Each structure stands twice: as C-alpha cells, then as structure tokens.
Amino acid sequence: MTKLRIISPHFTDKSTEVAELKAYVDALGSDGLEISHTTIPTGPISIECELDMALAAPGTIEEAVCAAKEGIDAVVISCFGDPALAACREAAKILVLGPGQTSMHAAALLGHRFSVITVVESVRSVIENMAREYAVADKLASIRVINIPVVELASDMAAVNEALAKEAIAAVKEDRADVIVLGCTGFLGSAEVVVAKLKAQGIDVPVIDPIPVSIAMAQALCTLGLKHSSRLYACDPAKPTKGYDALAGKLDA
Amino acid sequence: MTKLRIISPHFTDKSTEVAELKAYVDALGSDGLEISHTTIPTGPISIECELDMALAAPGTIEEAVCAAKEGIDAVVISCFGDPALAACREAAKILVLGPGQTSMHAAALLGHRFSVITVVESVRSVIENMAREYAVADKLASIRVINIPVVELASDMAAVNEALAKEAIAAVKEDRADVIVLGCTGFLGSAEVVVAKLKAQGIDVPVIDPIPVSIAMAQALCTLGLKHSSRLYACDPAKPTKGYDALAGKLDA
Amino acid sequence: MTKLRIISPHFTDKSTEVAELKAYVDALGSDGLEISHTTIPTGPISIECELDMALAAPGTIEEAVCAAKEGIDAVVISCFGDPALAACREAAKILVLGPGQTSMHAAALLGHRFSVITVVESVRSVIENMAREYAVADKLASIRVINIPVVELASDMAAVNEALAKEAIAAVKEDRADVIVLGCTGFLGSAEVVVAKLKAQGIDVPVIDPIPVSIAMAQALCTLGLKHSSRLYACDPAKPTKGYDALAGKLDA
Amino acid sequence: MTKLRIISPHFTDKSTEVAELKAYVDALGSDGLEISHTTIPTGPISIECELDMALAAPGTIEEAVCAAKEGIDAVVISCFGDPALAACREAAKILVLGPGQTSMHAAALLGHRFSVITVVESVRSVIENMAREYAVADKLASIRVINIPVVELASDMAAVNEALAKEAIAAVKEDRADVIVLGCTGFLGSAEVVVAKLKAQGIDVPVIDPIPVSIAMAQALCTLGLKHSSRLYACDPAKPTKGYDALAGKLDA
Amino acid sequence: MTKLRIISPHFTDKSTEVAELKAYVDALGSDGLEISHTTIPTGPISIECELDMALAAPGTIEEAVCAAKEGIDAVVISCFGDPALAACREAAKILVLGPGQTSMHAAALLGHRFSVITVVESVRSVIENMAREYAVADKLASIRVINIPVVELASDMAAVNEALAKEAIAAVKEDRADVIVLGCTGFLGSAEVVVAKLKAQGIDVPVIDPIPVSIAMAQALCTLGLKHSSRLYACDPAKPTKGYDALAGKLDA
Amino acid sequence: MTKLRIISPHFTDKSTEVAELKAYVDALGSDGLEISHTTIPTGPISIECELDMALAAPGTIEEAVCAAKEGIDAVVISCFGDPALAACREAAKILVLGPGQTSMHAAALLGHRFSVITVVESVRSVIENMAREYAVADKLASIRVINIPVVELASDMAAVNEALAKEAIAAVKEDRADVIVLGCTGFLGSAEVVVAKLKAQGIDVPVIDPIPVSIAMAQALCTLGLKHSSRLYACDPAKPTKGYDALAGKLDA
Asked: Do the beta carbons of residue D244 and residue A55 sit within 8 Å?
C-alpha cells in the first residue's frame, strides 16, 4: 500500500480546482494506493508568477514535512510550476514529485517533441527555465497559453477545454509537437476532452494530464523503492531559523 | 490488468540472464500485471556494439508486432541500448519502452546528475548518443564500465556486483553523481546489492535497475491510457519489403 | 585508383533512382575512381521511417562486408538517413560514408546555416536526431519537405525539381539558410536544376547533392589514407549470431 | 544620487558578515551613492541549500517591497544564490540585482572561462542550475568548495583566505579558469587577499567579489536609467494571499 | 578619476556618428570620468561585414596600444561587432570593452530574453557568432534589421528611430523579447526615443544603448580595480612583425 | 584542372615551415591539381594569439583577392586558426578553406570524439571558440599542447613528433578521443610519424594533418562546383577604405 499526499500549494477551501482534485483522488479507488490531500496554511490563492511561487514555498515545505512525519510515502505538489520542489526534498525525507518535472519527462518518453499548453503569459518564462534546468529543453517544441487565469478556470471548463484543444491543434500543426502536456494542474480531467477534440480533427497524439501522471509515477517509484538521494537533497536540521515555528524540530534526518 | 511482454533482443535459451529475467517476472505476482517473455528468432547472442544492435532489430520488430497482434498492452525491449525502439513503435501500435531511455528519464526525475555503469568500452559511444538524442545529456555525469562482457556476467555475479559497486562509488565521489543507473539489463537484481555496498560506505544514492523501472513505468503509462503518438510513430503497412515474411500483413494500423 | 562501392539500401531492380545512380556513376569516368553499385538482398523498397531503416540494415551490412572482402576501398550508403552507418563501419574494415552525415558537414563548411529539403514528414525526426548526433544541430536552419514519397520521385522529376526549388527559396528567405542540402539520394541530379531556379530568383547559395559530395569526400579521404578508427568502430568476429549466415566468417578483423 | 539597499536574506544581528558588510558600505563614502543595509525578519541564519533559499524568500521580498516604498532606487540581495531574485523584481518596481547573476556576467565579460569558489558541497547544484538558467554555463570552468560553512567564515578569515587561494590556484592550473568568482557574499574583502596570494604564485587573473561588483553594476544601471522590464517581471497586486500581511496593499504597480 | 578612451574603428572626420559621439561624451560632464575619443588611421568608413571588421582591426589595436601608453585606464571600441576586442586586450595592458559583448551581458542581467535590432542583413551572422562565443545565445530571442546602412543613419535619424521602434515592437510581440538591444553604436541617443515609442504602445521594456552601457560598465570595472586576466590575454612583445611599425616597441608587458 | 593557392598568413622566407610546405606541394604531382604558394607582405612571423590573427588578416585578404584575380579556383589559408577566413570569403569570390574548420569537420566525419594537439597554451581559447562557432564543440574531446612555439618547430621535428605522439596517446587513453587532429599547419608531415608511434602502442586512430586534408577537400569541392554562398559572404566593393591600397578596385563582385 502506497500512501500518497497531494499538496495544493495555495490557500483556498472553495476552489473548484481543489474540489475536483478531491473527487478525482477519491475516485482512484484503492488498488494499492491511499491518497490524501491538503492545501497550505499560508500562500497565494493561485500560482501564476515567481512571486506566487516564492510565497507558496514555506507552506508547501511545512505540509511536506508534516506528511513525512505522518508516515506518508510520497508527496505530489499540485502545481505545474513545481514550487519548492527541491526544498521539500531536502526538508522531508520521502519521495517528492512535481507535476511539471514529471510531465515533461513523461512527454520526453512518449515522443520527439512536446508542447506545453498553460494558462497565462506570465508563466512562460517559469516553464522555460524549468525545461532548461530539467534538461529537456531540446524536446520542448513550444509553450502556448489560453489566456485564462487559474481562478477563472473552473467557472467555464467548456471554454477552457475549447481553448486547450485549439492551442493543442496549433501546437501539432504549427510547432510540430508529437505530445501535448497540459501545463496547469487546474486542467485536471481536460486531457480526455482534448484527446477527443484532437481525434475529431484526425490528430492522434498523447495528452498528458500532470496530476494523474505524477500520481502514477509516484506509485511506480515507491513500488520500486526508489527515492531521491539524501546525498543531494539534504539540510542541516539544527540550523537556526526565525519565523517558521511549524518546522522546528521536524527536520531531523 | 496490464499485459506486458518483455523481449530479450538476442537469441539464447541457456542464458542465465534470460532465466533470471523469467524468475524475476514470475516473482512479480499479479497485482494488475501479467508479464510474458520472449527472445528473438534471429540476432546476436548479446548486444555490445552498433552491429549487434542492427542485427537484433528485425527479430525485435517481429516480436513486437506479434505481441501487438496477440493483444499485449505494452512491450519492454530488454537491452539498455534500446535496439529498434523507434522502429518497434512504428510497426506495433502499442506502447513500447526501452530501458535505456526509461532509466535515464527516471534518473533525471530523482537527482541533479546521474552516472551510467555499463559492461564494456564499446557501448560508451552508444550511450552517449542515446543521452544526446533523448535530451538528457546535460544530466549525465559520466559513463563507467566494469569491463566484463555480457555473456560472462551470469557466471560470477559476485564479481559483477563488486565491480558495479566500485564504479558506483567512484561515480559519486569523482564524477559527483547523485543517481546511479545500471547500464545493462543483465545486471538485473544487482541494484539492491549495490545500494547495500554504497550504504556500507556511507553513500545514500538511488540505484536504478533498468528492467524493473521500465516495467513499472509501462504499467503506469498503460493505466493512464498513454501511448506514443501514432502521428510521430507511423509506417506504411503496404510498403513492399523483401526478406521479412514474418512481418507481411501484420503492419496494418 | 580508389575503388568505391555505392550500396542502395533497398531492394529494387526497376527503380529509376537506381538506374539514374548507375548512369551517374558510369558518367564519372575514371580519373582515379572506379565506382560500382549494388542494391541489397533484403529490405524495404524505399526508406522513409525508422522501421525502413531497421529493415534495411542487415542487407546493407552484408553488402558492406562483401565490398571489403572484394578489396573495395570505400563504401557510400545511398540513403540520406545513413542506415546502418556505424554498424557497417564496425563490420567492414574499410571507409564507410553516409550521405546524410557527409552532406551536413560539407554544408557546415560552406556557410553559417543550412536547410535540408527532403521527401516526406516522417523523415523529419530522423534528420533532427542525425543533426544532433553529428553535432551540427546549431547549423541547421530548418528541415522542409516536398511531400512526394521516394517511389514517386522518378515519375515526374520536373515536379520534384519545382517543389525542391520552391522549398529552397522559402528556406533562404524565411529560415535564412545560406546553404541548401538535398535530403534524399533520390534527388540525384536535381542540384543543378535547383541552383538554376534559385539564380533566376536572384539567389546564389550552394546546393548540395548528397551522393556526389559523398563520392568526392570518400575519394579525398582514401587519397589521404584516412579511415575510421578501428578503436571506436570494432566488433567481435567470433560472437555467435543466428539468422545472418551471409556474415558468418567474414567479420575477421 | 543613487539610493541602494542591500538586503542580507538571513536573520542575524551579531553575524560578523553583516557587520563587515556595514563597515564596507559605510566606507564607500558618498560619490553619488547612498547605501543602506537590512537583514530580514524571518528566515534561516545562513543560506546553504534550497530549503534555506525558500525560507529566506518571503522576508527578502518584504524588504524589497519596503525599499521600493521608501524610494530606494535599487536593491542588491546579499547572497550568491540570488534567493527570490525574480520574485523581488515582480513585487518591487525597482531594479533588483543578485550577486550570483551579476558576478557571473561580469566574469564572462572579463575572460574565456571562470571558476566559482564557494563554501560547501550543498550549494554546488544550486550554482550549476543558476549558470544554466542565466545562460553562462558554457563559460563555467568549475565550481570548487572550501568546506567551511557560512556561519564559521568570520571566525577565521585567515583560514578562509588561505583556502580560497588554494582552490583559486587549482581552478587556474587544473580547470583552466581565467577569472575567479568568489561564490559567497560572506567572502567580502577576500578578493584583495586572494589576488595577492595568486600574484605571489605568478598568477594574474581577476578575482570578483560579488557584493562590490553588484553595487557598482547597480549604480551603473541606475545612472543609465535601466531597470528590468515590467512586462516580464509583473504580479497581480490584487491577488488574495494568506499569511503575508506585511505585503498587503504594497504591490500596487 | 577614470580616464576612458573611445575608439571609433573606422576612418572618418565628417561622420555625424562621430560628431554625435563627441557631443555625447562632452555632455557626460566630469563625475569621476574623463572621456576622450579617436578614430583610426586605417580602415573602412563603416563596419557591416567580416571584411570591414578585419580591415579595422590593425588601426584599432594601434589606438588601443597608444591609449595604454598615454595612461588611459580603459578603452571602449565603438562598434557593436567588437572588432579586434581580444587582440586589443592582448596588445594593451588595460581594460578593453566591446559594446556588443557588454550590451548582451547587460541585457541578460535585465531579462529572460533579448532581441538585437541592427542595421543590415550582413551583420546578422556576425552577431549570431558573437552570441555563441559570449555564451549568451540561449538568451537571444531574435536579431532584427532596419535595412539602413551605417553611413546613411545620421542623415535621417527620425526614420531610423521609426524603424527601430517598429522592429522593437515586433521583437516584443512576435519574438517575445523582454529587453531590446540597439545593435549598432550609430544608434547613439535612439534608446530614449524608442522607449517613448514603445511606451506609447503600452510596452515597457528596457532598451540598451551600447555606448552608454559600455562607458558605465568600464567605469564600474575600473572603480572595482577589475581588468582582464593577463594570463588569458597575452602576447609576445618581441615577436617579429612586418608592416606594423606603429606597434613596434609598444607591446612590452 | 583545379588551381589551388596556399597562403601562409605570416611573413617569412627562411621559415622551414614554408620550405616544407613548398616541398610537400611540389610532391603532390599533377593529378588534376596545380598548387601554388605564397606568404603575406605584412603580418607576424607566426600565429599564436588573437593579436597575431588580427595582424595577419589584411595581408591574407590581399593575397586571397590577388589569387581570385589571377584565376585561382580555391585558396587554403595555412594556419589552423583560420585567420581572416570569413573576410577572405567576402573579399574574394572563390572558394576559401581554413584548415581548422576543414580538419574539425573531417574529424567529425571519422569518429565520435576528436582531440586537437596544438603548439602552445595561448591558442587553446582560440580553438575552443572556433569549435563553438563551427558547431562541432560537442565532438571535441580535448585540446592538448606540446609547449613548443611555432618558430621552434622546424629545428627539432623529432622532438615535436615525440611530443605529439605523447599527447595523442594521452588524448586517446585519458580523454577518450577516437580521432586526433594536428592543430598547427607547422606539423605538416607529422601525421604519418604519429600514426606509427600510436600503432606501436597498439592504438589505431586516424590522425588528421590539416593542410593535406584541406587541399583534398578544396579539390573535391571544386570538382563538385561547390563554393560558399555569395548571399552570406558578400561585401560592398565601393565602400571607401583607407590604408589598404592593394585592395582598391579589386573587390568588384
């Protein structure tokens, strides 16, 4: 049995994104997987720029450390920007995956070039830097945006899906993408719809939904007994820190 | 239930590598996975250079096409060099994974830099080209060899494991690898031993066994309903071909 | 006197491509060059995807080994995709050139950026991988296709030349190519026509015909006494192999 | 008159690093430059890993926003890891420089290859990722460490300087560095000593002290009227955020 | 007091470019900076290709050596192509900056991607090679040209500014540039106008004027006591040379 | 009949390098090749740094233009640093090859990785920049030096050959080079000796002598009717230039 915790790195209790994520997680049943979900105590309502990423980080780290203390096996940070990914790996001694990194490597496994379709212009440079750091930049055909902010996604998923399909078709035809990566965890469930719309146009390419692929990869890695190196991802549990009482005494290796 | 076929791209029936692989596959039990195994009718006894890769390709393609016809969900080619990987994806309309590509992307998910420990000098340039084509070259810390040919591996696994551990330690200490990738499917089962030997030296880094990670990833992708794009990986089933009767009439999309 | 063998890595006896190649080779006269030509016993009728490349490989290797046994000095594989290039170098102890690799390096010698104009979409990713492996990717301005399959080329060379010129002009004007590489050996003889059509538009850029440039480079390298390193390109002549009787006993170093 | 604020992104009031920085800043006199200094209210005592970077970010952003509100012209974040650099640029509408980025570009201006000498192993991957994101990786000859943690630097600067010089000499002789970058702002003042020690060995290469070069570049850019694009570095001042009251109402563009 | 010499690497006395440069330099006042200006005795009237660069080099080197002999602290070569930059550093033992290199690194400090707007098509490959050698190629969004030769710039600066603004807007909108670099020192003074025109379109990105940024950076580096490594940039003062009497006896280390 | 001119881009009449080059050229006989040789009127006695390259350029350009006027078909610049290569191509309307560029592309044709063995430390960065500009940097295993200046080469060729062989062996064994490139045209004739010394150590790798390979490639390209694009390599023949009377009126297209 793999115990997985999904951390939405933003504060919210009414967000349909979170509701949808919970519904999805509940529906996954129980074939060897027990998934729980949390949001974070401090941070922005959504993540669309480097400032949002920075403000979401401490809460995300706290929740990752808590998950490790509770005996959770793996954490998935539910934001394509992978906020605090390396920091969480250092602070919590369990497997931590980011959907951006996981989706891009899965895309690289499935085709020659992939395009990321995301929400707004301001995350473009974030994703370009991620692709470069993760060393998959040579596989990145393009980044395209639908120009709908994260908090507006849930209010009209039909429009979101329409826009995603439109950009996905353009990515295939104009940018020669072989694989489409949905570049926001708020697109949960859209992959199926986009695939159908692409097939209606005679286009058959895989469409990667970042949360499901991250959950599946996390389970696979846990089953294999693989997690990140404690040699690379380490921190000094005794280092004095101010203002983060929630972490105090919880970083012991 | 995911039906997986492992194809060893070399001829042999007495090879302990194959026996070990079968034992491993049998031991995997049945949690949603049904694994079968085959070797190929024509090809070399082992794969250690580009010539071996080329001669192994037609038989591997034939077996992949047969697997698809039989209703298998996914194929794993059991050689780190990923012989005929793209060709199999074109010929068979099911998911096909190569352990080289899968392991290197898994390693990139788990750390900053990885080293591949493989059998002999002659596969070094093969692996370097793979890393460049798969776009993970920036993550490759080093390639190291134990100088034991594939066909001699099984006769003294203790020596093999000793050599693997020695090179893994050097990769961590001298090449600053955070992740170790075992660069031959003949090393099946050695990861556990190498991890133990590394820990005895106070070194805690993940060690990736290419076949298990490929099986796990194949199952994960099948569960997600993801396979390669038929847009990228395609062939003309009506194209006249001489000398490959086994493929005749089996490439229809 | 340099003895050169051109191997067309496809089966065919009526292909006008081969007829044209023979005529071209015959016309080369005898200034220090003796050229012979062969097709392969097994393989596809044309090469337009990775599957075709894989199925063409064994026959190509057999013919390369035969050429070496006959005392031939150098082999040119007559397909822009360079099928079995490294394997032929390992198996035969003579110089082996691929027109894709040779043309791309010649193009890099002649200008700042080059475009490859080829037959169909499905070879695009093949050529991109070649450019990356050959380390000339930074010089590659674009790949353009004329959307005419190889087997249809000979039936209307006027249309082929028209299409090549159109794409070449676009490559120069839109992609800023300084050099044009014809990306299929079936375009033999078209370079001259394309140059004329470009000049009619006031565009003066070199157009590289892959077979002639490969023949000239092979002769130059033979004259210099240069061939590939037996250190890099090596194989074990005693390795047991099944299903390739034609190679048996012919791989001795 | 350029008003510059140096933000030490760690909490501390007794750190000699901060004392030294203040002394340095006071000594700069007043030729067109007015420098002030602050630490941050929340964060770690020093920055040596990704976790430290993440925990230092919110306080650093708060201080950068305060500086902008006070009419400061430019901010320099006093840590070679450039924590929260992009986030500060988004949140504060003034020039923000990081010493890591600034020093590496200055080094690229002064030579063919540069080496970074830093404190401990754990910052190595941070700096490698920075070099890749900043696009100067091709100029990076090596990263070397002196194995002295940040908080111990001030207690024995003679030992620190000795170690820096030793690694700098090795970087020049073994890694062929033409420029040395001191990779920690805690090395303030060491450049002069290292230069002298290098000259005593007959080695004449520039040694870059990250804080002074960042101050000088900030003043130069302010004089030129140059700051970061508000097109790239932007945030939504109205976005709801929890737990960061200090930022409330201060992000208006 | 920093003594700076600007060398215009072309012959001319009536060029408005030089007149404008002198006016600009005079206007800089005297806050710690004493700027002088010279043209070169031999060379082309303007620099727009590699031939111009080569013919401008000897005169530029002579002037740089003279400047060093006169006690000048730093030289700026007033051409975006940085002719003879490395050679001047070897021959003169003082700081020498090229506006191309300096501007591109300044642009990299200020944003994620920059575009260079230059004069004519023929300098495009020069700038691409510079970006690759300076290691900032990953940051280069595009190179755009206004198709006005250098010698015609001064006769209609309004048209030049109009064309620069048009291309800058296209660079931002189509090529996603965050920073604009004016790619010719003949554009001196245009940055301000281009910024205004961009703002009128609602676009706020920094526009870098290469000469002012080079002067400011030279002053900053001189203040810091930083100059190029004499280890990297060295020459043998005793090497016999024919035809360059102006350099004789002036290269002593 | 191909008429080839070799230009030694340094002044000298007693240099044994030039004498040897003449002897070599004379010995080439006359199978379709007529080779002449010249030195340049102004320039350094040898080329070992960027300053030497810059001072050699004008004379080299003059000689290339003269060669074109005389009806020569192709020019080879006899220096591995390829001084004035692009400028000569712009000024003279005939094929111009540099031995550095030609040798590196030939090496890339013959193996996976090559090492350059050259004269002294100061040319290292020159060659690294060339490899990056020519886009073969991914193939460059290492650059090694024998620490003998160009003018001292001829006085003890036995010592030179000994040193070359020593470094070549180290390049193969330590840097894993598959191909050796002699990185100075003053090594003419040494390739044969180095090959013999390598074989005596059981090492069989090709050794490229830059002048012979450039002559052979020039002849091959001339035979094919290929030369550089006049679109890329162009200059304005009417541009006023001071101090280069030898070029006056000779640049007409």
From this structure: yes
pLDDT tens-digit map of E162-218: 999 999 999 999 999 999 999 999 999 999 999 999 999 999 999 999 999 999 999
Contact F136 C137 (CB under 8 A): no
Alpha carbon C253 to its chain centroid, in Å, reads 26
F19 Cβ neighbours under 8 A, 6+ residues apart: none
Span E45-77, pLDDT tens digits: 999 999 999 999 999 999 999 999 999 999 999
For the stretch C81-105, pLDDT in tens is: 999 999 999 999 999 999 999 999 9
Substitution target from C118, C123, C125 for chain A, most A beta carbons within 10 A: C125
Q: Do C217 and F219 touch (CB under 8 A)?
A: no
Other beta carbons within 10 Å of D137: 17
Report the residue from A111, A220, A227 with minimal CB separation from B219. A220
Contact A37, A27 (CB under 8 A): no
Token duo for residue D4: 């510059």
Residue E118 backbone dihedrals phi, psi, to 5 degrees: -125, -170
ipTM reported for the complex surpasses 0.90: yes
Confidence check: pLDDT of A29 > 90: no
Contacts of F164 (CB under 8 A, 6+ apart): F117, F146, F182, F187, F190, F193, F194
Asked if B107 and B181 touch (Cβ cutoff 8 Å), the reply is yes
Residues C49, B129: C-beta atoms closer than 8 Å: no
Name every chain C residue with its beta carbon within 8 A of the beta carbon of A176.
124
Residue range B25-40: mean pLDDT, rounded: 78
Among D132, C137, A135, F111, smallest CA distance to B140 is for A135
**In this model, does residue D18 exceed pLDDT 70?**
no
Question: Which residues in F lie closer than 8 A to residue D141 (C-beta atoms)?
Answer: none
Closest CA to F32 of F64, F73, F65, F63: F73
Which amino acid, residue A193?
Answer: V
pLDDT attached to residue F7? 96
Q: Which two tokens stand for residue A16?
A: 């349909």
Nearest CB among E105, E206, E230 relative to D109 is that of E105
Dist. CA B229–CA B223, nearest whole Å:
16
**Six token digits for residue A158:** 């039909």
Angstrom CA distances, C229 to C57, F113, F164, F178, stand at 21, 11, 18, 6
Report the distance separating Cα D99 and Cα D105, nearest Å.
10
Interface contact F112-B128, CB threshold 8 A: yes
pLDDT tens readout for residues D20-52: 776 776 666 556 789 999 999 999 999 999 999
Q: Enumerate residues 6+ apart whose C-beta is below 8 A from B38.
A: B5, B6, B7, B8, B63
Which pairs with CB-CB distance under 8 Å and at least 24 residues apart come from B82-85?
B82/B130, B83/B9, B83/B47, B83/B52, B83/B53, B83/B54, B83/B56, B83/B57, B84/B9, B84/B53, B84/B56, B84/B57, B84/B58, B84/B60, B84/C54
pTM for this entry: 0.95
Q: Tell me the per-residue pLDDT of F82-140, one tens digit each, with 9 for 90 and over.
A: 999 999 999 999 999 999 999 999 999 999 999 999 999 999 999 999 999 999 999 99
Sign of CA dihedral E113, E116, E117, E123: negative
Are the C-beta atoms of residues C210 and C182 closer than 8 Å to each other?
yes
Question: Sign of the C-alpha dihedral, residues F13, F14, F17, F22?
Answer: positive
What is the average per-residue pLDDT within B182-191?
96
Sign of CA pseudo-dihedral C17, C23, C26, C27: negative
The CA distances from residue D69 to D37, D91, D250, D252, E5, in Å, are: 15, 11, 8, 10, 39
> Could you tell me if C15 and C31 are in contact, meaning their C-beta atoms sit under 8 angstroms apart?
no
